[in-house]
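Hi team,

As requested, here is the filled-out complex form for the aspartic acid run. I kept the field names the same as last time so the parser does not choke. Let me know if anything looks off before we queue the next batch.

— J.
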Amino acid sequence: MKGRRMCGTVTAGDEGQRLTVAGWVNHRRDHGGLTFIDLRDHTGVVQLVFNPATSPAAHEIAERCRLEWVLKVDGLVGRRPPGSENPNLPTGEVELTVEGCEVLGQAEAMPMGVSDELAADERVRLQYRYLDLRRPRMQRNLRARHRFIKSLRDVADELGFIEIETPTMIPSTPEGARDFIVPSRMWPGHVWALPQSPQIYKQLCMVGGLDRYFQIARCWRDEDLRADRQFEFTQLDLEMSFVEEDEVFLVLEEMISRAFATAFDIPVSTPWPRLPFSEAMRRFGSDKPDTRFGHELEDVSDIFRASSFRVFRGALDQGGSVQALRVQAGAELTRGELEGEWLQVARTYGAVGLAYMWRRSGVYEGAIAKFLSEEEQEALTARLGLQDGDCVCFTAGRTQVAQTSLGAVRLHAARRFGWIPPKRFDFLWVTEFPLFEADPATGRIGSVHHPFTQPHPDDWDLVRTEPTAVRSRSYDIVCNGVELGSGSLRITNPAQQALIFEALGLSAEEAQRKFGFLMSAFRYGPPPHGGFAAGVDRMVMLGVGESTIREVIAFPKTQSGADPMTGSPTPVAPEQLAEVGLRLAKVLERGGTDHDGREG
Ligand code: ASP
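And here is what came back:
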């Protein structure tokens, strides 16, 4: 629109000017024979005054219009009468006296409010997402997202990366999740997969001599949805040739810290601390530790080696450990709380129980106190620095379970006692993840990251003999207890890669069928390379202070994996199936366009 001025930018400096604004009717009221409308666009609101005496046609529209109609208005900027200014608005000193008005769009009664205060139920919000997007908060989030992505691109370009679009119809990628598949019409009975990541293609780009690749890449994984997971999500994906960890770290620290500053005005200092996986587990009971506060776990196994307390002793005798957490000022916690909520938190991570004692007036109280000898109590007091008014919590059992469950209790305690300082962004690298993990149910070995990750150079010998003890050259970025992404240095030697496939229980034929093209590529001069993928949605979520990624994605799915706005997914038409040579085994109940009542 020619000469259009944005609503939120009209200020006292414009007094006496004739301006044109356009936007949505945010609010309307009549007062003293005049009609006032707050007109809104994404920059803010400006107050319009309609006077029936001087502009009767415009006033007639003002009287007739409803909330969320779209108007174009010409008018004269003047100061608001003294006493009626609004100091909370940038436009609060002025108003536009309307001389001409045109209706550009009409609105029926709105199914939901579009101000932040009136935020509707999420299902309604997603059903009318195009209205929800009008809310200032969504506007702010999506604009911050845009700035963030632009800044990532700018810095990547400066650092010599080029953006390459890899295909989105590909064979399956081994990221460990379920694929979304796309049936092929030209090859009946054959399917494409949507990429879980551009992993293989970016490695092929390195073989192709592209040196520094990046992409703001859409990825798909068919997993259950959570606050920080969607079927489709966006990654800052990159790969670099001729590098070791340090160079990858430097690039990501630069990109992310600069983009956080530009997009969110959040200063992020670099370099980021590096914490090996085993240390993260030991100190924080998590591979994505929240390091904004201390209150670390203590392994107190040595204190209880000869204990007569059966629970601790039993765990130790079976090769496990006893972990302890000092909960400062925790004496105020009730038994009900500890044996209810707190125990539940520990159980979620596999702990059988949560032992605890309070320290009051120099003595320990609680059910387990009488089982601990005086020496054990004293050693504990000294090790954890326990004081009157504290509580101490314990988990005992398989070390990893004891650590992760007490790690979860640590986070729970942090929220309960306000240990987390506001407005802090603690980025760190967690390094040397195990290369393999064993499925607890089947014992089957799987990759923790993906099968192209290099083992730690000292651990090659263990690949065959003790695979779960092998450390890898992989690394995660963690911020405030949220995993923001992962990466690794890659294997480029076909023989070494074959050894890893073998450890994963992949037969040579299977490996050839799935990844033969990559193995072939590595026969023709592969440069050493490594890379990373960081979750854009999660980073924006953190940057704008939201607690789900749905708030920073324009059109997300609900937690039950549907889109109430378009009523999808939709049942498939028989003709569509026939075209790709498929037939349904049975018609499933849950079809139709109604995905009601499954919000989790
Ligand atoms: N493809 C990996 C992922 O999506 C990241 C990487 O190794 O670069 O997690």
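Two things worth flagging: Residues 293-420 form a domain with the Gyrase A; domain 2 fold (CATH 3.30.1360.30). The first strand starts at residue 18 and ends at 31.

Thanks,
J.
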